[in-house]
């Protein structure tokens, strides 16, 4: 049988696009894209934090007030971007889940997990407060401590505790988190802890997605597998995998 390979692949692709599994895949891609933005902002601030701790940066900051201001300003910019992206991730995920799964058990499980993971957690309240502070009040105040010992020259950067603690809109949870620290808060401590909490939550959500849509994903995989067979010109396996009978297979035979 002389099969028109490209015609068959095009048809399989069209059939794949009609499956619920393809829609589910698009939803997962969207959620992953939102998470990617959040994680990349975390990588940026993490990388910049490591840069500011280097010996040569510490020495230059100690020597030049203008250089120190630039380093601190850039640090605050990275912090601002991370905090805004954290709120965007929350809104994008919540809005998508409510749109896609209104009235379903999956939405109920998602909302229950959100409550258990995030609601009432002082860390989460503090991160939300930081975001509101930097968006609605002013850039967040930070302090850089220079260590200029004989064999130990480096920087450590902190969130200025007093400026946040004195903010009238600070939540009870945010205040509780701040009061765990005797003095200023190491800037990467809450940021990294919050990032890990979010990533672990999203891993849970992906597993729930895949369980909820297991049948849909399996159906879509049939077509993905069949396209792979068609690419290799293993047409017998294509028709077997998709359950096509001989009459339908004839539709892809080249006319003599």
Structural account:
- The chain is mainly alpha-helical and 256 residues long.
- It has one domain.
- 73% of the residues lie in helices and 6% in strands.
- It has helices at residues 5-18, 20-52, 55-63, 65-100, 105-117, 122-136, 161-165, 172-178, 188-212, 214-231, 235-242, 246-249; strands at residues 142-148, 153-159, 185-186.
- A three-stranded antiparallel sheet has the order 1-2-3.
- Helix 2 (20-52) packs antiparallel against helix 9, helix 2 (20-52) crosses helix 10 (214-231) and helix 6 (122-136) packs across helix 8 (172-178).
Largest sheet: 3 strands, antiparallel
* Beta-strand segment tally: 3
Strand order of the largest sheet: 1-2-3
Structural class: mainly alpha
Average pLDDT: 89
Question: Beta-strand percentage?
Answer: 5-15%
Please write the string of helix (H) and strand (E) elements.
HHHHHHEEHHEHHHH
Indicate the multimeric state.
Answer: single chain
Q: Portion of residues in helices?
A: over 70%
Poorly predicted runs: none
Overall shape: elongated
What's the helix count? 12
User: Span from first to last CA?
Assistant: 11 Å
């Amino acid at each position: 049988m002389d099969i028109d390979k490209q015609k068959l692949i095009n048809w399989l692709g069209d059939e794949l696009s009609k499956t619920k599994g393809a829609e589910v895949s698009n939803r997962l891609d969207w959620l992953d894209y939102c998470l990617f933005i959040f994680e990349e902002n975390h990588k940026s601030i993490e990388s910049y934090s490591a840069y500011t701790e280097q010996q040569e940066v510490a020495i230059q900051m100690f020597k030049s007030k203008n250089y120190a201001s630039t380093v601190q300003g850039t640090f605050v910019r990275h912090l601002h971007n991370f905090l805004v992206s954290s709120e965007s991730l929350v809104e994008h995920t919540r809005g998508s889940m409510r749109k896609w799964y209104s009235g379903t058990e999956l939405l109920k499980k998602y909302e229950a997990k959100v409550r258990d993971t995030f609601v009432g957690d002082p860390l989460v309240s503090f991160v939300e407060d930081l975001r509101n502070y930097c968006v609605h009040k002013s850039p967040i105040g930070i302090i850089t401590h220079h260590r200029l010992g004989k064999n130990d020259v480096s920087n450590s950067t902190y969130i200025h505790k007093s400026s946040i603690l004195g903010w009238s809109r600070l939540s009870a949870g945010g205040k509780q988190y701040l009061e765990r620290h005797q003095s200023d808060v190491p800037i990467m401590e809450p940021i990294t802890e919050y990032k890990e909490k979010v990533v672990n939550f999203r891993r849970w959500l992906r597993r729930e997605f895949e369980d909820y849509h297991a049948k849909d994903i399996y159906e879509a995989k049939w077509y993905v597998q069949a396209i792979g067979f068609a690419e290799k010109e293993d047409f017998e396996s294509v028709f077997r995998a998709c359950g096509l009978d001989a009459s339908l297979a004839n539709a892809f035979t080249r006319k003599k």
